[in-house]
Amino acid sequence: MSFFRIVLNFLRQRLFASTLTAASVAVGVALVASILALRLESERAFSQKDTGFEVIVGAKGSPLQLVLNTMYHLGTPVGNFPLESYEKLKTDRRVKYMLPMVFGDNVGGYKVIGTTPEFFTTFQYRKDTGIRVANGQPFTTNYQIVIGAEVAQNLRLKVGDSVTIKHGIQEGAPGEHDHGKMPIVGILAATQTAIDKGVFSTMYTVWDIHYHEYEEAQEAAEKAAGGGKHEDEHHDHDADEHEHTHTMPPEFTSVTAVAVKLKSPIFFEAFIRSVNEGTQAQAAMPIQEIMALFAIVGNINGVLLGISYLVIVIGAISIFVSLYNSLNERRREIAILRSLGARRSTILMLILSEAVSIGLLGGIAGILLARLGLRFAKEFLTKQIGNNLDFAAFYSFDAALLAGVVLLSAMVAVIPAMKAYRTDVAQNLAPLS
Amino acid sequence: MPLLEITNLAKHLGSGEETFTLRVPHFSVERGVELVLTGESGSGKTTLLNLICGIIAADEGSITLDATDITKLSEAQRDRFRAERIGVVYQTFNLLQGFTAKENVMLGAAFGKHTSNTAKRAEELLARLGLADRMNRKPRELSVGQQQRVAVARALVAAPILLLADEPTANVDAANAARVMDELRALAKEQGSTLVVITHDDAVKQMFPYSQAIRDLVA
Which domains, ranges and CATH numbers included, belong to chain B? Predict the structure, then answer.
């Protein structure tokens, strides 16, 4: 009978206690493995250094909010800045290209973003990687819709379908209001960025929707006041009906954000300064803002990680308690093994192996638990953080974590193992009275 | 040359004021014999058995088994020697409750020379002892007589040169006692093991051609 088989039999003999102990280790390992994987993947997802643009220009306010909202669709926009400021930016000779965005309204909870046809031609969301339309074509006129890959998948939409744009950045926002149906003309290839969650149309489309909302509100007010001039008028929009455009007051033609690619890195500081010196807009560097955010989050992460390591230590202590308490009832078993020729060192190794097996099983179960948990939480997390998190099957820290748990388990088993090592064979073999 | 020879053996036992010394000036057992050692409770039977097995170390004298003076061996060497050369059947069977009958028998050969056919030999011995259909049962699922037979199989599985049985019939009824002793003797003879039975049971004593009272051995 092999040594391993003997260890296995002893573990099986104390199955309930062994399972509970391994479970307590597994909880700690699962917490640590989850936090480490989350940290790694969120840093990887948010620290995209190879974006096709370096600066985001938006309304005055929090630069971090501007970056998070523009790049990851997190939170609400800082606000909008006048179109004339954008027109002025366009004339800046340091700019290689820029992409304006107007945020507003939603389709099934996904943000509608008004932009320009350059989104499909010159804009690069990654270095040297532009937008690709997987199905259909880019929008060519107002009131045509192009949707991101995730939107198409989750809302089960295809080219030729029509969508209803609802008021508000998020689904179910107060004052929800339909604005008629608009045709989907294209579906974008997946980019693994927030673009996959976007519903794109022209800036004019977004402005016009807002302007109509304003008009409808005015009409309702007039009706309430006894006017009722446009009583039966209804504002459905579709591409065929809206080939015409009309002039809107300037407060309805503002821009939420502009992604800017400069001709050279040497212009960064001067460009940002020149924008920030103005009164209507600010310029933010995404990578700088994200790193600042991680510096803050890193402290909280460290605390969480510390607590999780403590849970592992408590799991290891439970291995010690379980083994130590079991020794009293196992003295006779140990004496029997010794009488059959087992050396003291064999008994020592037996106890250490039991502890290591419990630690290893707990460690493996913990890592599997973490992967399973993250897999189930992926959709929720992606929605919460606004970026795609892809979790690997294995991480390099898994091996280190397992090795650490095994070492810790062996360390806490030294005292029980030494006690077992010193078991008096003759005394414990004596017939029980 | 005898298989077992004890010369001027002394073992100090107890502590404080309650100490005594077990002394055996000379005792030998020839190869292949069947011997009964008889003695009352407290006469030192179990201590002598533990000394011969090397479970406890002698303070003086020598114990030579199969030409090896085990008093000269280190504890680890004595463990190895016991695993390979000595089989013991204990009064209380000393089976491990978490192991099946077959696994308990296999443990008898787990710490000596590595052999690949231990499982097969365990099965053969158990079948021979009428436990073919009880091999995968845990000790608590076996009757007392069956547990005793598992203990016998375990003592024999490594084919020891010396088979020691400490009060092997103390916990079984007369019918089972006779059966166990018959099987023990037959199997020991078959594989050429020298059999030493330690007992205070006169019925067992009557079964053996040679007997020796412990009180005649000790000084």
Answer: 4-217 (3.40.50.300)
